[in-house]
Amino acid sequence: MSETILIVEDETAIREMTGFALAKAGFQVLEAADAAQAERVMAEATPDLILLDWMLPGTSGLDFTRRLRRDRRTRDLPVIMLTARGEEEDKIRSLETGADDYVTKPFSTRELIARIRAVLRRMGHAHADGEHFEAAGLVLDVPGHRVTADGTEVRLGPTEFRLLRFFMSHPERVFSRAQILDHVWGADSYVEERTVDVHIRRLRKALAPHGRDGHVQTVRGAGYRFSHQV
Ligand code: CA
After folding, report:
1. How far apart are CA 216 and CA 195, in angstroms?
2. How many A from CA of 52 to the centre of ligand 1?
3. How far is the CA of 24 from the centre of ligand 1 (A)?
4. What distances in angstroms separate CA 146 from CA 135, 150, 157, 160, one per listed residue?
5. Per-residue confidence at 126, pLDDT binned at 50, 70, 90?
6. DSSP string of 8-30, one letter each residue
7. Cα(10) to centroid of ligand 1, in Å?
């Protein structure tokens, strides 16, 4: 599953060039010209990382990062700040505000892609090779259809297995019930949203004897998250 990058940049040429390079590198790309548009895009789909221009019309990149960090749905979403400024002080300011990295324009797309991969790796995406996922002491083996907690097998139904696989491949991110339905049951299924709650309960019940149920977290008013931290 390829990662989705949201580019928030008002300069069309830079946005399109960057989007083209990222798509070529195998990422899914979403684009927005300002913070308001970015919020509309994010209401539809949660990106894995945001490339955020510092100098945007309306809300600045710094203010938008602050806003993302205040919202529990987006507080752990990685942000790489793009800026024309190269001063050390600006770099420190953007990192203090909560950006995960900082790239100065003009940048090479190769460097940018390397930085994106590094940030995603730090966020835990590298623990997943598409077949095995490791997080919070759990190991999920996709071909073997097995989950172990500290080496002991966790017994899961097929839906709980798919649900846990989805969560473990996207740690620390909050998903709404509708998004979970789309990813785990498929966008064309006619399952009610409360079905998600039922399977979350079953998943927690299966993880509880292993002391791992606390990693499947309810985020009130938003949905669910798999977190390394309890
Ligand atoms: Ca700009």
Report:
1. 16
2. 9
3. 23
4. 14, 13, 11, 11
5. very low
6. E-S-HHHHHHHHHHHHHTT-EEE
7. 5
Q: How many helices (H) and strands (E) does the chain have?
A: 8, 12
**Listed ranges 17-26, 42-51, 86-95, 124-133; the one with the highest mean pLDDT:** 17-26
Q: Which of 58-62, 94-98, 123-127, 168-172 shows the lowest per-residue confidence on average (mean pLDDT)? A: 123-127
Averaged pLDDT score across all residues of the chain: 88
Taking the C-alpha atoms of residue 165 and residue 163, their distance in angstroms, rounded to an integer, is 5
Closest alpha carbon to 139 in 212, 203, 209, 198: 212
Helix axes 88-97, 61-70, angle to 10 degrees: 20
Residue 7: strand pairing partners: 31, 51
pLDDT at 218 (0 to 100): 95
Q: Give the contacts of 19 (CB within 8 A, at least 6 positions apart).
A: 7, 29, 31
Taking the centre of ligand 1 as the mean of its atom positions, its distance from the CA of residue 57, in whole angstroms, is 7
| Cα 123 to averaged position of ligand 1 atoms, centre (Å) | 27
pLDDT tens-digit series, residues 6-29: 999 999 999 999 999 999 999 999
Domains and CATH numbers, the chain: 4-126 (3.40.50.2300), 132-226 (1.10.10.10)
**What is the Å distance from ligand 1's center to 117 Cα?**
23
